[in-house]
Specification:
Layout (H helix, E strand, L loop, with lengths): L1 H12 L15 H13 L18 H7 L11 H8 L10 H16 L8 E5 L6 H10 L3 E5 L6 H6 L3 E4 L17 E4 L3 E4 L5 E4 L4 H4 L5 E2 L6 H20 L14
Parallel strand pairs: 1-2, 1-3, 3-4, 4-7
Antiparallel strand pairs: 5-6
Length: 259
């Protein structure tokens, strides 16, 4: 709910026409598909986002496939996933979190006097939402990419070999100082709710920030790092979709590729 509210506020700040359809947990698959079909046909709507996860009774794959690929501002439709995987990302909306992380990686590399090309990038996490598309985007930047996960053997040693480390495994503070190469760029995509010493819950990333920060050349905090970039990239995808629907060239080009 917090994330959905943040998206709504960002859309309003951008001057977008934005609607939120908050459906009860009892909503059936047919009802949700009918809503998606209606939004597909609505010419006043240029971007559709179905907030995941969905109730177990609903097939999320079927729902995502039902979205018009031209209105798929999350970049999750199989057609758009395929365009990214086959090096045609300029023709597709990019998944928001990996895209935002990529722009942060580019900026960090420039700030450190480097380029991403030739870097060894280790992505920890193999989800369709972050891990896999992140690896594809970094390949397009000419990084040498290793896609790791929670069952990778000797994970710490592998992570410590990375010039660019992306943590997206969903385990709080899983990666510590023993996983960070001195001077490496560390992007923490994890958002985990943990109990604080005062008994109140707090957000924590997949990286132990306090332990990793002294070693890293650049590191993103949680919250306040990749999260705001995710929302910014969602707004960018919505803008590009609206421009495409109007037959205009996009006002911005944030597709992957050497910079």
């Amino acid at each position: 709910r917090v994330y959905v509210a943040s998206k709504g506020r960002a859309a309003e700040a951008c001057g977008f026409h934005s609607l939120t359809h908050a459906l009860p947990a009892t909503t059936g698959e047919a009802e949700l598909l009918a809503l998606v079909a209606g939004l597909n046909a609505d010419r006043a709507i240029h971007g559709i986002l179905v907030q995941l996860p969905l109730p177990k009774a609903i097939d999320a794959t079927k729902v995502l496939e039902a979205i018009d690929p031209a209105k798929d501002v999350d970049g999750f439709h199989p057609l758009n996933v395929g365009l990214l995987a086959t090096g045609q990302a300029a023709r597709a909306p990019l998944p928001c979190t990996p895209h935002g992380a990529l722009l942060l990686a580019r900026a960090a590399a420039v700030g450190l006097g480097r380029g991403l090309a030739g870097m060894h990038a280790v992505v920890v996490g193999r989800s369709n939402i972050v891990g896999k598309p992140m690896a594809q985007l970094l390949l397009a930047e000419d990084c040498t990419v290793t896609l790791a996960h929670s069952r990778t053997r000797d994970l710490a040693a592998l992570c410590k070999s990375a010039d660019l480390l992306v943590a997206a495994v969903g385990r709080p503070r899983m990666l510590g100082a023993d996983c960070v190469k001195p001077g490496a760029i560390v992007l923490d995509v994890g958002i985990n709710r943990v109990a604080g010493e005062d008994g109140k819950s707090r957000l924590a990333g997949d990286v132990d920030f306090a332990a990793a920060a002294p070693l890293a050349g650049a590191i993103t905090p949680v919250p306040g790092g990749v999260g705001p970039m995710t929302i910014a990239m969602l707004m960018a995808n919505a803008l590009k979709a609206a421009e495409a629907a109007a037959g205009r060239a996009p006002a911005m080009d944030a597709a992957p590729g050497p910079r």
